[in-house]
Amino acid sequence: MKYLYYPGCSLRSTGRAYDESLLAVSKKLEIQLEEINDWNCCGATSYVSIDEIDAFSLAARNLALAELQSSDEEVNLIAPCSACYLALLKTERFLEEVPDVSAKINSSLYKAGLHYNGRVNVRHPIDVLVNDYGLENISKRIETPLKGLKIACYYGCQSLRPYATFDDQYHPMTMEKIVEAIGAEPIDWSLKTRCCGGSLTGTIQEAGLRLNRFLLKEAQKSGAEIIITCCPLCQHNLECYQERISRFYDEEINIPVLYFTQLMGIALGLSEKEVSMHRLFKKPSLKRFSQKGAAAHAW
Amino acid sequence: MVSTNEQSTSKNSWEPRIVAFFCNWCTYTAADLAGVSRLRYSPNARIIRVMCSGRIDPQFVLDAFSKGADGVLIGGCHPGDCHYIEGNYKALRRVQLLKRMLKDMGIEEKRFRLEWISASEGERVKTVINEMTEQVRELGPLGMPERFADWDKELDILEKEINRKGETVDA
Amino acid sequence: MHGNGHKEDIRIGFYVCHCGHNIAGSLDVKSVAEYVKTLPGVAVSRDYKYMCSDPGQELVQKDIRQNKLNRIVVASCSPLLHEHTFRIAVEKGGLNPFYFQMVNIRENVSWVHTDKKAATEKAKDLARAAVQRVFSHKPLEPKHVKINPDVLVVGGGISGIHAALTLANAGKKVYLVEKSPTIGGHMAMFDKTFPTLDCAACILTPKMSQVKNHSNITLWSYSEVTKVDGYVGNYKITVKRKPRYINEELCVGCMDCIEKCVYKEGKTPDEFNAGLSKRKPIYIPFPQATPQVVLIDREACIEFKSGHCKKTCVEACDRNAIDFKQQEETKEIEAGTIILATGFKTFDADKVPYYGYGKYQNVYTSLEVERLVNASGPTSGEVILRNGKTPKMIGIIHCVGSRDKRTNRWCSRTCCMYSLKLAHLLKEHTDAEVYNFYIDMRTPGKAYEEFYDKLLEENVHFIRGRVAEVTDCAVRPEEEGKLIIRAEDTMIGIVRRVPVDMVVLAVGMEPKEDAQDVRRMFNISCSTEGFFLERHPKLAPVDTFTDGIYIAGACQGPKDIPDSVAQAGAAAAQALSLIDRGEIELEPNTAFVVQEECSGCRTCLTICPYNAISRDEEKQKAFINEALCKGCGTCVAACPSGAIKQNLFEDEMIYSEINGLLKLTSTECC
């Protein structure tokens, strides 16, 4: 299995744990990820609200580069960050469905000596793991089943809205299926697609923290030991403000927030170091699962 | 045999002409539903109603092509839904054979189509007719009557030549 | 044009209908009429405002007489709508009704095309095809078929009951087949009915016992139709009678056996109470069940599971009605007409997980609440929640599974009114604050809007906005331990969070699970949503495309009790009109073998789905039994020697249509 890979900026900065763990898991599962050469910003920044066409053009350059790099009839491009995933997917759809937008984007690409032919299929890693690789195949390769570990799966907004390509928009279950496949226990909670606060944590912090607290509290209340997510912004928001929330609301909030790939990696027998557990502020206690001494050494 | 079709003679005003055979119970009813629902679709198909898609003789299709149709569409009930139990299966069998024959005759695949459209699928009538019109438009006129006329002319010339040779030999 | 006119002098009358603006608004009817006038054989060509009106039909008849017309072509709406009307008009004018052809320029042209020029061209093409077709039309005699006066009614809900009683009271013999162990349907589960608030049982159970006691009705409950053969007037129906393991003749419904069952408590969710209570393996759906006969659930009964039960039920029955060896029975009946009243199912609330059904115990469906407020229900009419408490705040969510692209797009028509009824009943029973969350209030019906007004005065709250979710995640202290309904209040433009103790989901109405199978078995159609399709939405609302089969009640689309009863009456009247006529004219579109041309090859024998073709071994020719032929024409297309012809659809007619459509006159083609 071979896919093109678009990491995006977050995965090379605050979200490095996601990048490293996804690559490690893919390697373990023998899924080849080939990074796009010379990729640039996906356009999901505030650029969209200033000039949508320019933002689309940025994203389209990545799509055009992906096409250059693969001779497959259908080029599967994995974008793990939810914001990148949506920006690229939206661009792909607009190029296909809205002729005048498509014309403008292509004229921008032309100036850069590029052209987009519509061969790229933007994919989310969850989608690829569940629908291409298959849950059964994942289960087969589990070395350390995470038995009894209670997990709250958190999807955030952009991985499923507005385009629900691999799951239900309001009540997704794919990450839960992965959790089951690796032997852990997904908890049932209703906030898995509720807002994590987005960039509000950096602008109107009080509002951001309120949204954030709501999720953390509910996950804790539902008995989850760990929250897993598939978005670097969600992970950052949920993990980094816990102490502030505890202080502000005068209540105990303490729950590790992992990328789903990190948890998968542990179950697949990778060491904590290999899935970059050291990059987290709040480390989960997974000692009871580490069969190999090596895993403990890695700290 | 003289064709009096004005449409295909002038290239600019050419519009695809599709002859559609619809079964009474499913597809014809679906076309009525499309009408009642005021769905808008391209005016290029002309519908002939038959009781069952099983009634459609492959010769009807060949005749339509030879008389100037650019496309032929057959509409019947979904498998298992035929008002006459299994007429649509018979239609399917004939269509399979006919498709091979048309291919051998050099008639493009997209000019001939079989669709299962149930009485509730007015929307499908619209989609299929629109799609087919566009596909046939891309292929351009089939022009069988004109081809026949050309072939007739060639035959006439050939015949005359043979006759002339015969005369000289006789002389 | 030369030739063809030899046999007789063809004089065609052509009429193009304006249909008000329906046709004339989208195509140039005058130019169609003028064009057709120039075609060979056309003696008269006119346009008229409404051809189907009396003056329109008289116009045709006058022309037939004055202009000696012998073929008529009318270009108007679909033949499925008015072909019959015009054939009668032609016959009244003194011509054989089959010297007529209809051109569909409304459903197939004016209603679907916007380009007036192209539409006019298409209408001309279609008209030309029909004009050329009628040259080869022949005079035909319609086939007459006797109507068996017995009627089969499928489904014993209020619609089926009403239809069966109407027919039985008119002296007709009726077979009423019901799938479940009792008749009564959904209505039997309801407490009160809107807007009058009269008790459902009080108005329904007398009708149920009338059915049981009527000498003209044969009631087969716990039975299913498995096969339908034959045709209008002469249907042959196979009915499977599932074993109840109780002799229906002997059981008097004393229920002693139920009490004495080795199970002291029921363990199986009670279907009649929407699963809110448990029943024993031997049970009766409810005390007034009709027939009043118990039955044994094979899946739950110890005797069936292990064979080692003490069989206390058998001891308890002094009439020896229990029979563990009872077998499924197959009955064959004959009926001339069939009424389908197979009902609906409610929307499955699991499909909208954001409303928390199945997750939060105090989220109920409306059907469950019907049982909860019912005096004969699991709580004897006391509204006690699954957590044992009485609710103080109740939220009713409208349009669950309705008016939503993600689930069903249609409005289920009854939910607004039954939600109002439930709001009233819940308030009456609990004195709780009741909130209705609605998109639009739809109360069209006699005294319906007045009922809504009454509820407003009863201080029931109405919030206009679609509910986003039901959650137990408390944000404010007053929300702790409650279910919170989150919705946008579109009247004041804010998002509301309403904490409640009980949520009622007003689930919509859907086609029954087996609607598609039933449709296939009875050879009728379904509309896009999956409800049974009526022959015409306005003019033939209870007929189907299959003669002699009628539909009534919610199997045709969501409707309330008054509408279901009205439709059931209409279906019964349609059946009666056919029965009392005694016979029906069938389309004479049967096939026949031209003996001289038949080579006796047997190709057609295997192709006919009705075994209507046989081979005379002496003459070595095929024969078609006209009574068995249904006129599909499949054999015609299959005959290698072209010896089979189908009336009304002869090859010649279809070829002339093809040629006509492609602007070739009939001489140019052959």
Keywords:
heterotrimer; A: 299 residues; alpha/beta; Rossmann fold; 2 domains; four-stranded parallel β-sheet; 10% strand; disordered C terminus; C: 670 residues; FAD/NAD(P)-binding domain; 5 domains; five-stranded parallel β-sheet
User: What quaternary form is this?
Assistant: heterotrimer
- Overall morphology of chain A: globular
Q: Structural class of the helix and strand makeup of chain A? A: alpha/beta
CATH-defined superfamily of the largest domain in chain C? FAD/NAD(P)-binding domain
Q: Shape of chain C from CA axes? A: globular
- Rounded to an integer, what's the Rg of chain A over CA atoms? 19 Å
For this structure, what is the CATH class of the largest domain in chain A? Alpha Beta
Residue stretches of chain C low in confidence (pLDDT < 50, at least 5 long) are 1-5, 666-670
Describe the structure in your own words:
The complex is a heterotrimer of chains A (299), B (171) and C (670). Chain A has 299 residues and is an alpha/beta fold. Chain A has 2 domains: 36-123, no CATH class; 143-279, Rossmann fold, CATH 3.40.50. Chain A has 12 helices and 8 strands. In chain A, helix 7 (174-181) links the parallel strand 5 (150-154) and strand 6. By secondary structure, chain B is an alpha/beta fold. Chain B folds into 2 domains: 15-140, Lumazine/riboflavin synthase (Rossmann fold), CATH 3.40.50.960; 142-171. Chain B is 48% helix and 13% strand. Chain B has helices spanning 27-36, 58-66, 87-104, 122-139, 144-170, and strands at residues 18-23, 45-50, 71-76, 112-116. A 4-stranded parallel beta sheet of chain B has the order 2-1-3-4, with helices on both faces. Chain B starts with 17 loop residues before the first strand and ends with a helix. The model of chain B is unreliable at 1-10 (pLDDT under 50). Chain C is α/β, with parallel strands linked by helices and 670 residues long. Chain C has 5 domains: 7-140, Rossmann fold (3-Layer(aba) Sandwich), CATH 3.40.50; 142-242 and 328-344 and 514-584, 3-Layer(bba) Sandwich (FAD/NAD(P)-binding domain), CATH 3.50.50.60; 256-316, no CATH class; 347-510, FAD/NAD(P)-binding domain, CATH 3.50.50.60; 591-647, Alpha-Beta Plaits. In chain C, the strands form 12 sheets. Chain C has a 5-stranded parallel beta sheet, covered by helices on one side. Chain C has a 5-stranded parallel beta sheet with strand order 20-27-21-22-23. The longest helix of chain C is centred in the last third of the chain and has 21 residues, at 561-581. The model of chain C is unreliable at 1-5 and 666-670 (pLDDT under 50). Classes of the chains: A alpha/beta (299), B alpha/beta (171), C alpha/beta (670). Chains in contact: A-C, B-C. At the B-C interface, helix 1, strand 2, helix 2, helix 3 and helix 4 of B face helix 4, helix 5, helix 17 and helix 18 of C.
